Amino acid sequence: MEKKFYCVFVYTFLITISFLMLSCVAKQPMSLATDQTVLLSLKQHITSDPSRILAMNWTNSSSICSWIGVTCSLRHHRVAALNLSNMALSGTIPPQLGHLSFLIYLNLKSNLFHGDLPQELSLLRRLKFISLRLNNFTGDFPPMFGQLPKLEYLNLRNNSFIGSIPKSLSNLTNLQFLDLTSNSLSGEIPKEFGRLQSLQTLAVQFNRLSGAIPSAIFNISTLVVIALRSNELSGSLPTDMCRNLPFLAGIYLSDNQLSGAIPTNLSQCSRLEVLSLPYNSFSGEIPSEIGYLTSLEKLYLGGNNLNGTLPHEIGNLHSLVEFAAEHNEIGGSIDFSIFMNMSSLQNLYLWRNKFTGNLSRDVGNITTLTILELSENHFTGTTK
């Protein structure tokens, strides 16, 4: 789900950037010469260029608008995009990079850049897109990102940033995509994030965040993905969490310390495709309202304290591919007929619960199943 949105966003953004492309004339204007100085400074800070891409291409013998990874704007004759992704480059980011004052797009993903990010990047007031994912950047999370008023896309996934998420990010009212996954961030999710009323993807997985999920997050009506798994988040989910989330397609909250009941108004998230809540401390029964999520493809509820019985309404989930509710306290007999109309169901995990009674031979009629795990229950046999 996250990958699908990422691809659509990047494709749309690059279409926009393509209109800025220009092959500059050999005689460069003074402003472009300034950009050249900045890029040569960046080149000097790169300590490893294994494919010698910049070493062979970024030279004074050619216009910087023809350099690999550089795109110049047609209107201003300045560097508008810098894309050095997937080049295995190693080095640091010089403060001079902040002087690329017409830069709109910055993509350094999948390299080996390291060290702190310079405060001077806050001078890039035209920036709309930043991807620094899959590098080795360190230091406190840079608050200067909150000073980039036009930013729409910020991806810092898989780095080593520490500290708390700055409240200043809530200034980015145009932000649509935020991914801070796999860093070492701590503290709480700022309640001020409720101001991000253009946000579509919020991904802050595999960090050390604590505290409750701010209720204001669930009032961002544009949200498509909420991905906060593998943190130390606690508290309960709002009972009306889906009231203002008409476009929500993915909820990823596994491996936290969330508790309380699963909200009954989940049916209002009518476009939900993935509901992932395993390995928390949710209690109570599986709400029957889940059965009205007709777009649901994956439902993960394992490793909680759920009890009661399986709601018959689950049989309405004709798009469901995988259902996991293992390691709970769900009991009673299983009416396997509720699964027989699930034309997409492939994997069913109900092991380590308190199911009782006879194990009906109807389970053999669920022809789409490839994995069925029912071990560690209290079945007494098979009906005739």
Count of discrete alpha- or pi-helical segments spanning 4 or more residues: 3
Query: Looking at CATH, which topology of the largest domain would you report?
Result: Leucine-rich repeat, LRR (right-handed beta-alpha superhelix)
Number of domains: 2
Sketch the major β-sheet.
14 strands, mixed
Cα gyration radius (Å): 25 Å
Q: Please write the CATH class name of the largest domain.
A: Alpha Beta
Shape: elongated
**Which structural class matches the secondary elements?**
mainly beta
How many beta-strand runs?
28
Short characterization:
10% of the residues lie in helices and 26% in strands. With 384 residues, it is mainly β. The protein starts with a helix and ends with a strand.
Structure in words:
The structure is a single chain. The chain is mainly beta and 384 residues long. The protein folds into 2 domains: 1-188, Alpha-Beta Horseshoe (Leucine-rich repeat, LRR (right-handed beta-alpha superhelix)), CATH 3.80.10; 238-244 and 255-270 and 278-384, Leucine-rich repeat, LRR (right-handed beta-alpha superhelix). The protein has 3 helices and 28 strands. The protein has helices at 2-18, 30-44, 53-57; strands at 46-48, 70-72, 79-83, 90-91, 105-107, 112-115, 129-131, 136-140, 153-155, 160-163, 177-179, 184-187, 201-203, 208-212, 225-227, 232-235, 250-252, 257-261, 274-276, 281-285, 298-300, 305-307, 322-324, 331-332, 347-349, 354-359, 371-373, 378-382. Mean pLDDT is 92; it is low at 19-30.
